[in-house]
């Protein structure tokens, strides 16, 4: 990653806002250590949808007061990406891993068995599988491109796929070689239907500073295949460990769970033009690990109209980060909830 001068410090590193340090304020007591309230009602406007990793649940969170409701009590093993489209909530699951108690940390979890999934829930109906079992290996971030389509990354499956919101027409758009190993694992995704582009990241090894963000057309070029595409561009390289993406107009936001100082951060950068590399990202918030020990920034939702970004982490926290050029500029970041269980995907409801 290219280096620039940090504004006002004289040091070198990614451009900063300057970054805020995410030291949480005390969350409402009703959200600490308490099982979320269960309700059959759908999420209210301007709530967040959040995924609880274990046990898997779909939650609705009110950013105004931190109230939490459970929408789906059993969301399957290891939910990761979530969107809402046409009144229905969709989410991916990573599936149940094989475990090795002798291996430390994440090395002890093997998600290579094809038991991930893509699921849907419409208020008033039971949750359902959108794809048959085994159709995806490890479901990661999920995006909607409008026009009745869903896009998601399959990490251990080394692919990016698309399907209709009714489960029809599953199609692989990008397939990376199995020989690339962890370097070919796709994690975060964003879709730009207006320009016809697909953005995704391949985060590389943990804390490895080998993460990349890439771009290609939404449709495979004529005469080519998902395995062999000539239109793939690497926009950013040598990032600490990028995770979830969010596209807002001409700006791409992403979380990064890599090592400090550039990891465990919320970042953004303008979209580069055709054939051009990305400029050094601006770090909007940092210090997620410092604030909560070993937890790391994962889920992301951006409310550009309000000038706010929301970040979920593996420590069970959701934080609100004011954007430096939005209506909330100058406001201190705050903790929305602290649930004490790992959280992954986020999306902001209209």
Task: Walk me through the structure.
- The protein is mostly beta strands and 350 residues long.
- It contains 1 helix and 30 strands.
- The chain has a 5-stranded mixed beta sheet. A 5-stranded mixed beta sheet has the order 4-7-6-5-30, with no helix packed on it.
- Strand 23 (251-256) and strand 24 form a beta hairpin.
- It starts with a strand and ends with a strand.
Topology:
Layout (H helix, E strand, L loop, with lengths): L3 E2 L6 E2 L1 E7 L15 E2 L9 E5 L4 E5 L6 E5 L6 E7 L2 E6 L4 E2 L9 E2 L6 E5 L6 E2 L9 E8 L2 E6 L4 E6 L6 E5 L13 E4 L4 E6 L8 E7 L15 E7 L2 E7 L2 E6 L8 E6 L11 E5 L1 H5 L4 E7 L4 E6 L3 E6 L11 E5 L4 E6 L2
Parallel strand pairs: 3-25, 4-7
Antiparallel strand pairs: 1-2, 5-6, 5-30, 6-7, 8-9, 9-12, 10-11, 12-13, 14-15, 15-16, 16-17, 18-19, 19-20, 20-21, 22-23, 23-24, 24-25, 26-27, 27-28, 28-29
Given as residue ranges, the uncertain stretches (5+ residues, pLDDT < 50) are 1-13, 17-45
Count of alpha and pi helical runs: 1
Radius of gyration: 19 Å
- Residue share in β-strands: 35-45%
What would you call the shape?
A: globular
Helix content: under 10%
Number of DSSP strands? 30
- Assign the structural class, choosing from mainly alpha, mainly beta, alpha/beta, alpha+beta, or little secondary structure: mainly beta
Q: What does the main sheet amount to?
A: 5 strands, mixed
Rounded mean pLDDT is: 87
Distance between the termini: 35 Å
Strand order of the largest sheet: 3-25-24-23-22
């Amino acid at each position: 990653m290219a280096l620039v001068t940090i504004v006002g410090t004289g040091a070198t590193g990614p451009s900063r806002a300057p970054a805020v340090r995410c030291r949480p304020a005390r969350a409402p007591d009703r959200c600490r250590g308490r099982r979320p309230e269960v309700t059959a009602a759908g999420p209210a406007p301007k709530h967040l949808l959040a995924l609880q990793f274990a046990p898997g649940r779909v939650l609705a969170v009110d950013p105004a007061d931190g109230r939490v409701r459970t929408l789906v009590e059993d969301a399957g093993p290891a939910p990761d990406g979530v969107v809402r489209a046409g009144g229905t909530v969709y989410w991916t699951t990573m599936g149940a891993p094989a475990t090795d108690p002798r291996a430390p940390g994440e090395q002890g979890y093997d998600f290579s068995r094809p038991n991930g999934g893509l699921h849907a829930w419409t208020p008033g109906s039971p949750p359902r599988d959108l794809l048959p079992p085994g159709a995806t290996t490890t479901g990661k971030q999920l995006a909607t491109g409008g026009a009745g389509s869903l896009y998601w990354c399959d990490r251990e499956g080394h692919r990016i796929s698309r399907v209709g919101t009714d489960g029809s027409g599953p199609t692989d758009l990008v397939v990376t070689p199995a020989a690339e190993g962890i370097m070919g694992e796709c994690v975060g995704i964003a879709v730009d239907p207006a320009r016809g582009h697909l953005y995704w990241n391949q985060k590389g090894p943990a804390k490895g500073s080998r993460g990349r963000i890439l771009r290609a057309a939404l449709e495979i070029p004529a005469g080519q295949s998902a395995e062999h595409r000539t239109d793939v561009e690497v926009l950013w390289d040598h990032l600490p460990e990028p995770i979830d993406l969010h596209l807002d107009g001409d700006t791409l936001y992403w979380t990064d769970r890599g090592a400090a100082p550039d990891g465990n951060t919320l970042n953004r950068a303008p979209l580069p033009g055709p054939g051009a590399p990305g400029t050094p990202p601006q770090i909007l918030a940092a210090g997620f690990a410092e604030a909560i020990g070993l937890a790391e920034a994962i889920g992301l939702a951006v409310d550009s109209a309000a000038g706010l970004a929301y970040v979920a982490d593996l420590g069970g926290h959701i934080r609100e980060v004011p954007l430096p050029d939005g209506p909330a500029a100058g406001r201190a970041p705050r903790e929305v909830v602290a649930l004490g269980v790992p959280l992954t995907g986020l999306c902001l409801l209209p």
